[in-house]
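Design job #97: recover the sequence.
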């Protein structure tokens, strides 16, 4: 469909701008000229003239060469295929909650796979994520206990698989959701015959790539002393999100803000490859971090784009606003 383009893009994680090749590499010496050539760093990255593109179905979407995907992007596409299109060593913190495989009505995804098939699919995602993380980069994985009768210790399965792939397991956080007031499943009431424990919590499993330590500029630390003391206690009492934004299981913003401040520096890049309606991307931008938002649902991505646009970064942080949703690899039409 398109002609061949030869492009050189240098992205240095942790910087607030994209650095273009200088004259020795055939690129412009003036950063402002580079930004002009790159389309002001918004939406799909453009270098050496306009990028060939085709309008996709639906307003506000642009189909782009996925080899050019840079941060501050909202991307509709398959998680694994899109991760393959991201630069290696470009992400400092990934936060996600994959589909739980319990029949939840997500858009753009079948949430009722066989358990072994589900784990194999996620393992392919973890392989690609490991490639895009920087040395010392973190991965915060939210997962809930499964149903009572068809119980699978999914948090054990996932931590086993991630450690086998070379991730360092740092810790697990108990997210206490304070939901016992809605309890209806007691099992054998007031009897030891078959009583049920109903989970009022979820796990946040935290991993690192290669090193426990993430290097960064101390001037880009934005966590306060009281916050650090509070967040370092691994029992986080945070109520679930009440504003659903059309999604069955959105993150509460305070949970994401804690993870971002505790595990990353301002100017870092934060990724959610099952991004839903954009909580991680919006909170990342509001806290002076760059972001990648990926989801298979065009409807969710459209909502994510609007949430990101409404998020206001700190006055001294340059976090571009995406112009549109980018159509990534294997996106549904």
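Job complete. Output follows.
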């Amino acid at each position: 469909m398109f002609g061949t383009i030869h492009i050189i893009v240098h992205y240095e994680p942790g910087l607030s701008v994209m650095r273009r090749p200088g004259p020795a590499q055939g690129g412009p010496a003036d950063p402002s000229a580079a930004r002009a050539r790159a389309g002001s760093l918004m939406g799909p990255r453009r270098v050496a003239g306009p990028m060939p593109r085709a309008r996709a179905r639906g307003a506000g979407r642009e189909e782009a060469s996925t080899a050019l995907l840079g941060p501050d992007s909202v991307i509709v596409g398959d998680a694994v295929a899109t991760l393959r299109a991201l630069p290696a060593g470009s992400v400092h913190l990934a936060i996600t909650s994959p589909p739980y495989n319990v029949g939840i009505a997500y858009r753009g995804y079948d949430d009722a796979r066989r358990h072994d098939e589900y784990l194999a699919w996620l393992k392919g995602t973890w392989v690609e994520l490991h490639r895009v993380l920087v040395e010392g980069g973190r991965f915060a994985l939210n997962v809930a206990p499964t149903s009572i009768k068809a119980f699978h210790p999914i948090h054990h399965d996932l931590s086993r698989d991630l450690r086998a792939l070379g991730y360092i397991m740092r810790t697990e956080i108990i997210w206490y959701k304070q939901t016992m007031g809605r309890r209806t499943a007691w099992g054998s009431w007031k009897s030891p015959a078959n009583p049920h424990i109903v989970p009022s919590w979820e796990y946040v499993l935290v991993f690192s790539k290669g090193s426990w330590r993430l290097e960064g500029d101390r001037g880009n630390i934005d966590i306060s002393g009281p916050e650090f003391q509070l967040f370092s206690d691994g029992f986080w009492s945070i109520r679930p999100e009440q504003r659903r934004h059309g999604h069955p299981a959105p993150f509460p913003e305070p949970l994401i803000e804690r993870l971002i401040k505790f595990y990353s520096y301002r100017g870092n890049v934060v990724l959610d490859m099952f991004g839903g309606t954009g909580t991680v991307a919006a909170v990342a931008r509001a806290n002076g971090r760059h972001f990648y938002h990926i989801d298979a649902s065009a409807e969710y991505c459209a909502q994510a784009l609007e949430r990101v646009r409404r998020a206001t970064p700190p006055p001294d942080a340059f976090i571009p606003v995406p112009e549109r949703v980018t159509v990534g690899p294997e996106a549904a039409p």
